[in-house]
Amino acid sequence: MANMRYTLPLLLFFNVMGMLRISAQVNPSLISASALKQLQTKEDTLKDYAFYLTTDSLPEERMIADSVFTRTLVRALQIPHSFYYPFDSVLGISKKYAPDSSFRIITWNLQYNDYYNRQRGAIQMNTKDGKLKLFPLRDASEFTDHPEDSIRTAKNWIGALYYNIIKKEDQGKSFYTLFGLDPNNAKSTLKWMEVLHFNSQGEPIFGGPFFSYERDSLPKKTQLRISLEYKKNARVLMDYIPDLDLILVDHLISENDDAESPWTLVPDGDQEGFKWEKGKWIHINKVFTQKLQDGKAPREQPLFNQPGQEKIPATKKGN
What residues does each domain of the chain span? Predict the structure, then answer.
């Protein structure tokens, strides 16, 4: 991979994705000394190729780096008890553990050009004997027009780089809500929210009738997953807030009254929400409300002329 060339946008993406590192939430003591040495050697290679696939300016070089990275990652994960190894130095790659440490999801982005991104990934299960149980994730986003209306498997996954996983339970079953990012294209970014569970065969199932609008004044049909597409580089919230025990989602409006163009959408200051009840997320149309007296618009505290302070006279023209 000699003579690498880098572009500023990709370097910025690399820096942002570097924040997605996470340390293992389990005891790494099960890794033997020899296995640890092998994992450290693999990590050095993965670190280099992760850098190449997220920063090289040539798409063909990024594709080569992705291929080498994928093969090396699978070999690394085949090392006994690799689940406990966090690969902390491999930047630009999301490594998210389930809250109960039953699995982890490793995801990354491959940019072919400014208007074509696809995600790669795999779910690694935590096995008692330390042997590898892996579900490769195949991004099938481009083959569907209505991804919100489909239940999917690892073979036709809606690609995303996951930045959070939370666990909820219902009737003794575990459900994991995933929050993910898709760089999408040069004009807009996507965020995804969906529920993952495992079927009776232990296979991952993405999506389902988990997002209900039944309490809205004008209810719409239950969504199998939620997506937000918005203006590139806008700061948009879609995440679980532990202190509130709610999912908060920024409400979006168009900057130029063109709601049909998602690349014009930005937050308007309001948040919608979802609360987990009886095995599903119930929509809350507006989480925060503030009632104002008629004609009393909210304003910043004035700097001068506070009650009890001397009034500052107006300056006359010519003085």
Answer: 1-138, 147-289
